[in-house]
Specification:
single chain; 110 residues; alpha+beta; five-stranded mixed beta sheet; 5 strands; 25% helix; globular; disordered N terminus; structural constituent of cell wall; secreted
Length: 110
């Protein structure tokens, strides 16, 4: 009885750990550039994002990546509006599209 439980319990806990969503990353963990404040964050396959990606000629390897639309850089420690984000603060791997779109985004906590 206990031997079956000793096998089943670790397997169940491993599945639970994989299925549990992780909380937002702390802002200090963003090493790919400035944290972005994006009006919306959605899947690259969403109609709005897919249309913008196509019009800019961006080729994505992962169409399930999260992207930020209409983004501006913010500072974590700063003065004034540059340190605040009333929309979606994110850390993205590619911010090179002039604020129109940021690619590979992960939500962060400011």
């Amino acid at each position: 009885m206990f031997s079956k439980l000793s096998i089943a319990l670790p397997a169940f806990l491993a599945i639970l750990a994989v299925a549990t969503p992780t909380p937002n990353e702390p802002a200090s963990s963003c090493t790919t550039g400035p944290i972005q404040c994006c009006d919306t964050v959605e899947s690259a396959s969403s109609p709005a994002a897919a249309s913008l990606i196509k019009s800019l000629g961006i080729v994505l390897q992962d169409v399930t990546a999260e992207v930020g639309l209409t983004c501006s850089p913010i500072t974590v420690v700063g003065v004034g509006s540059g340190s605040a984000c009333s929309a979606s603060p994110v850390c993205c791997t590619d911010n090179s599209w002039g604020g129109l779109i940021s690619i590979g985004c992960v939500p962060v906590t400011l």
